[in-house]
Amino acid sequence: MNTRKIMTTAIFAIISLVWAGPAITLAAQQKQQKPAADSGQNQDMSGMDMDHDMPGMDMGQGPAKPDDKDQQAEHGAMDAMSHMHHHQMGPHMYMTAPRPASADDWAKADAIAQQLREAIEPYKDYRAALADGFRIFMPNLPQAEYHFTSYRNALVESFTFDPARPTSLLYKKTKTGYDLIGAMYTMPKRVSEEQLNERVPLSIAQWHLHTNLCMPAKEQRGHADLTRFGLQGSILTKEACTDAGGTFYPVIFGWMVHVYPFEDSREKIWGQ
């Protein structure tokens, strides 16, 4: 294992220890949620060798070992996510329910967006982000948005919140490089929605989790039925996943919320 992977594993080991405890229960909340529309796009779950993990990748069982089933699931899920735009995820995404917005909520949101806008302005030159330690998630795979992630920020954001310190920067790829369009904040998956609301009001933005992932058996990973498995598959329950010979994960990764501070309206800034 090289130094980079050792450091990443160490970071998530610390996060797992600090946030140890059962994952939050989503069943009651999900009954009140309507699933987002499915994009219908396909994904390859053959097990891509990815350069980096995503922030908040606490699957509740500690850091993955090289051949651990959790790491296999993470790899497959990441591969699937790379083909999906966040507006188009289906029933495997849980989003917080909107709340009535108050003037104080909007004032707080406006302040967050302003601080974020000023803080990430220097990263309009994507090379500045790379120089500051942000790393590109799967740079060689075509994506609607590329996440440049700071694992240092991800760790600190588990404890405290600074609007000027996002976990990831969001870019669109161009012929000459990358254009900065936004940023992403994260929190561990076990926190409550009230804790999310304290950071970014749920009346303004919807945080999301990736849920109910059924991964096919390792030996089937290269030719699995993609209409059933993965983050766009039809399998949504542990029982159905077990019957299909797969491994079920109720929640993967952590809470995420995207912000687009350079947009020209509040709705676009906080639109997911």
Walkthrough of the structure:
The protein has 272 residues and is an alpha+beta fold. Helices cover 31% and strands 17% of the residues. It has a 7-stranded antiparallel beta sheet. β4 and β5 (178-187) form a beta hairpin. The longest helix has 18 residues, at 103-120. The protein is globular, with a radius of gyration of 18 Å.
- Termini separation: 36 Å
What is the radius of gyration computed over CA atoms, rounded to a whole number of angstroms? Answer: 18 Å
Tell me the helix content. Answer: 25-40%
Overall mean confidence score, pLDDT: 75
The secondary-structure element order is HHHEHHEEHEEHEHEH
What structural class do helix, strand and pairing data support?
alpha+beta
Strand content: 15-25%
Contiguous low-pLDDT stretches (5 residues minimum) are 1-88
Main sheet record: 7 strands, antiparallel
Describe the global form: globular
The number of helices is: 9
Strand order of the largest sheet: 1-6-7-5-4-3-2
Count the strands?
A: 7
